[in-house]
Amino acid sequence: MAVCGALVRSGRLSRPISGRNSAFIDSRFAVVKRLASALSYVPETAPSDFGETTKMNLFQSINSAMDVALANDPTAVIFGEDVAFGGVFRCTIGLADKYGKDRVFNTPLCEQGIAGFGIGMAVMGATAIAEIQFADYIFPAFDQIVNEAAKYRYRSGNLFDCGRLTMRAPCGAVGHGALYHSQSPEAFFAHVPGIKVVIPRGPIQAKGLLLACIKDDNPCIFLEPKILYRAAVEHVPVGDFSLPLSSAEVVVEGKDVTMVAWGTQVQVLREVCNMAQEKLGVSCELIDLRTIMPWDSETVIKSVNKTGRLLVAHEAPLTGGFAAEVASTVQSECFLHLEAPVERVCGYDTPFPHIFEPFYMPDKWRCFEAVKKLINY
Amino acid sequence: MEIYVNILKAPRNHVVELAKMAAVRSVFRVRSLLQQGFYGFYRNSASFAVRNVSIGSKISISPGQKRQMSSQTLDLEEDKPQFPGSRSEFTKKLEFITPDVYNGIPVYRVLDRQGKIIEADQDPKLSKEAVYDMYHKMTLLNTMDRILYESQRQGRISFYMTNYGEEATHMGSAAALNPGDVVFGQYREAGVLMYRGFTLDQFMNQCYGNAEDAGRGRQMPVHYGSKELNFVTISSPLGTQMPQASGAAYALKRSGKRLCVICYFGDGAASEGDAHAAFNFAATLECPIIFFCRNNGYAISTPTSEQYRGDGIAARGPSYGMATLRVDGNDAFAVYNAVKAARELAVNENRPVLIEAMTYRIGHHSTSDDSTAYRSVDEVNYWDKQDHPIGRLRHYMVNQGWWDMEKEKAWMKQARNEVMQAFQRAEKKKKPPPSELFYDTYREMLPHLQQQREQMRKHVAQYPENYPLENFEKDRD
Lengths: 377, 477
Description:
The structure holds 2 protein chains of 2 kinds.
Chain A: H1 2-10, H2 22-36, E1 53-57, H3 58-72, E2 77-80, H4 95-99, E3 104-106, H5 111-123, E4 128-131, H6 142-148, H7 152-155, E5 165-171, H8 186-190, E6 196-198, H9 203-215, E7 220-225, H10 228-231, E8 233-237, E9 249-252, E10 257-261, H11 264-280, E11 284-288, E12 291-293, H12 297-307, E13 310-317, H13 322-333, E14 343-347, H14 357-360, H15 364-376
Parallel strand pairs in A: 2-3, 2-4, 4-5, 5-7, 6-7, 10-11, 10-13, 13-14
Antiparallel strand pairs in A: 1-8, 6-12, 9-11
Helix pairs in contact in A: 3-9, 5-6, 11-15, 12-13
Chain B: H1 2-9, H2 12-21, E1 28-29, E2 40-41, H3 45-51, E3 58-59, H4 63-68, E4 74-75, H5 128-153, H6 167-176, E5 182-184, H7 190-196, H8 200-208, E6 231-232, H9 241-255, E7 261-266, H10 273-284, E8 289-295, E9 298-299, E10 302-303, H11 316-319, E11 323-328, H12 332-349, E12 353-358, H13 377-386, H14 389-399, H15 405-428, H16 447-462
Helix pairs in contact in B: 5-6, 5-7, 5-14, 5-15, 6-7, 6-12, 8-15, 9-10
């Protein structure tokens, strides 16, 4: 992944050589702010029984989750490319100082090695938290994830497993990431029995779901929408808490159209809910799937049986995307309740483009148009 | 010690360039282990920094700071390269480093082909019982291979892979390990498992995928595993076990148990990216692991001449910063000595060791392969008749007066009986219930799998005549 290294170091997306380079950090803030202006993040409130909260953005809440994991579990370790100095997205900042270099450490630049190494640690009963620097670079590790991590328990008759493994990777569009700093590969992993795939929509969700993945006895892939690292800020519980896996959440209740999304796209559809209400008088119900595999079909089916209409939206390309799986299940389970064919608004079936990103994205205008189509069918 | 001597005799710039090529210091660490052919090297930049402390003005960083920052020390007075990625000197000569700059790494052996100890100080001095145990298990493995190979030919099991010719690599290495050391195998290491106490019944149950198979009939034959024997279940993809083994070794190091991992792989698997990943991770993260390469000359049909162009797998060790040894894999005592010494290095110094055991795959790759299509019968016969690991150990035992033809005949008869009985027991057992198809995909039986299990049961109940239910146990609930 030599190209990856070069891009990380020279590209606009992230070029930290030194954590002390404040000029860089400031410039990146500006970039994120500019991009985030297109995305209005609506902060959420954590349930009061999760205890004391403090203001965190998404990378800080990820950091806080790993801090909790390392503090509670002496076998837990974090490793990956550049994690020791805090990671190119700052998710591991301060953890090496706090827990030592043998628990938070750099690996050579080799994703299949990171995955394999993590599996081996987990097989020995240690809690392994591996970072893949970008989800776009997870593919050298595909064999280790698909043929090894996912099948360890099954093929050994439960003699051995790597359930203590969690692999984190930043994913999704940021405005300028082009082909190799933008992808959302969740559908590839959704096709693999034996692993869990989780994507949070904001800081509170990120911490609760990441801790759930770390504690879960199955290998998990945790994809972090990187545009939200700094753009999404809310009051996050400081202590230990978990949110349930394989449990979708109704984020906005409504009665006319069900909209399903995950990660950043939940924030896009939240806006579409408002637009539909204001401009069309249409009431949308928004569901965050949260866990892509194994997914909570029950919550979606229940909602579609109520509304009769479904829109699924994701950044990844249309064909073979996870929206297809949701649509297929809904047509089979909700057939007689459907008022219109299921709409999918997704990335086009092209590589993720650079300057054309505004046209490629399943933005609020494309989603809004799909709502109109559903209503007018 | 030829390579060592050659390096010392070579022109200085050759030494420097060679060392640079291998990413090692030009100063070699002379250890007692060198007697056994180990190459040890000063590895880390910390020693480099210390060596320069007293020379001139420099920008140095205190150890406290070094933990947080780059560990490079700049020496601005000496005209030496200051690049962070190298540790050598400048040269005025434009000279490529060619692969023939040194002779091949020598093959360490203890027994000659007639089973005689070559150097008395290399005799592992194993007890009669220990040698018996090795020999019994080498021949038992050989007997089991013959019967299971034939049974596949008769259509009684679906697949098999023999271990012919590699028995000494299995028993020699297994005998040198602590039973708590964790094994990550490839697929042709049944002998290691047998040495640790996996019973004939357990082997047969796995090959039949019957209800007693710990793997619940989910994998092809020879994909053994045993939690209690610390032998991680085999998987088919090649090389994938290698970076996992490095990770497991790191976890063992952190646990403070003073155990190590041994990772077996072949000359073909060493070409996989996973092999590179494993070596580099183990070296940089200082993992107590023995990488044990069984270089048996072939990856299915591909000979080593088409697999690599360098000096085998061992030549790669120093370039990763690993202590490395090449050993005669048909010499059980040499393998034993090698692994025993490697284990000490790994456990005492938390560092990886690479052992390349040179051997020969006498059998076909698997029951799906016919090796007469790509190699001569004469070649196979040489290894089978002239240089067989079992024959060599038998010569040794005969030389010691511990073994004779009569004992051999009696033991071979007994071995065959034991294997046949276990074979018949395994064949009679039913397969696990069909619902086992769904278990262990996840730790818990998830709702969508419960649903699919019910769909399968319903369908099979509706069309029982289309499914081989008579061979399977009834569902557990």
